[in-house]
Amino acid sequence: xxxxxxxxxxxxxxxxxxxxxxxxxxxxxxxxxxxxxxxxxxxxxxxxxxxxxxxxxxxxxxxxxxxxxxxxxxxxxxxxxxxxxxxxxxxxxxxxxxxxxxxxxxxxxxxxxxxxxxxxxxxxxxxxxxxxxxxxxxxxxxxxxxxxxxxxxxxxxxxxxxxxxx
Amino acid sequence: xxxxxxxxxxxxxxxxxxxxxxxxxxxxxxxxxxxxxxxxxxxxxxxxxxxxxxxxxxxxxxxxxxxxxxxxxxxxxxxxxxxxxxxxxxxxxxxxxxxxxxxxxxxxxxxxxxxxxxxxxxxxxxxxxxxxxxxxxxxxxxxxxxxxxxxxxxxxxxxxxxxxxxxxxxxxxxxxxxxxxxxxxxxxxxxxxxxxxxxx
Lengths: 166, 200
Description:
Chain A is mostly helical.
C-alpha cells in the first residue's frame, strides 16, 4: 500500500523499511523519501551503527569464551547428572510394558492358585468307621467339587453293635 | 542447517532422530552447532559474559533432560532459541542478579569478559573509544524494557524474521512489530544527545 503522504517522515514505516518489512512499492517510496530527508537518514544511520556496534560487542564477548571447555563441562554434567539418556529412556520404555505384564501375570497366578491349584478337598459329611450287616448297594456321585458315596446296607439286630451308617 | 560428524553431514532432521535415541554424539554435535548462537542471545539479553556461559550450559542440560518433549512443532533452532530467551529472562528476574547487573559498571564487566590488551593491540585512543562504545551500547540496552530488548536482540543479532521472533517469544506478529518499534524509538531517544554531541 502506498502511503498517502510520501514526503512526511513516518517513524513506523522507517523502521519497517530498515527491516525490509514493506512491499516493493513502499520500499521504493521510502528509499526516495530517505534519500531526500536528512533527519530520516540520520536516524537510520544511528540505529544501523548501534546495531553494528552491538554485533561487534557480542562477537568480542563470544571470542573470549572457551567453547571447548564449556562443551566438556556440559557433556560431563549431562552424563553425570542424568546418566545415559538413551539407556535410561530404553529402560523406562521397557518398564512401561514390563510393569503391567508383571502385575497381570501375578494376578492370574494368584487366582489360579487360589481357585484350582490350592483348592482344599471337600470334607466328608460323615465318617463310617464300621458297620455290621451286608451291603446291598453303593452309589457314588462325583462332581468336580464334591465326591459323595451312598451306601445301602442291611442292618443286623445286634444290640452291641451301633448303626454307624449315616 | 547441517554440520559434519564422523566426516559426514548431519541435517537437523537426522540430528533430532539421533537425539531421541539418546545418541551422545548427536548431543555433542548439537552443543557444537548451537553454542555460539545461544551464548550470543543470552549475552544480548543479559550483557554479562559470565552469566551467559552459565545460561548456555543450563540450556543444553535442559535440552538433554527434556528432549523427549520436543514434538517437532517448531524447528530445532526455534526450540533452542525459546529455551534460551526464557532462561535469560528468568535470570534477569532474579533479584540478586538484577542487583549485580544494575550496579556493576560496564568497565568492570568488560574486564572479566575481555582479555587485557597487549602492547601491540589497539592504541589507547582506540581502546578508549571501544570502552565508550561498549558503555554506550550497554547503557542504551539496559534502559530498554526486557521484552523490547529481547525482540530487538533476536532481530538485530540473529536476524530472525518477525514471524520467527513471534514463534520464539510466543507473541503475536503485531506485538513483535510494536515491541520492535518501541525499542528503536527508545534507542533513538537515548542516542539522540550522543549524536548531537558528535556533530558539534
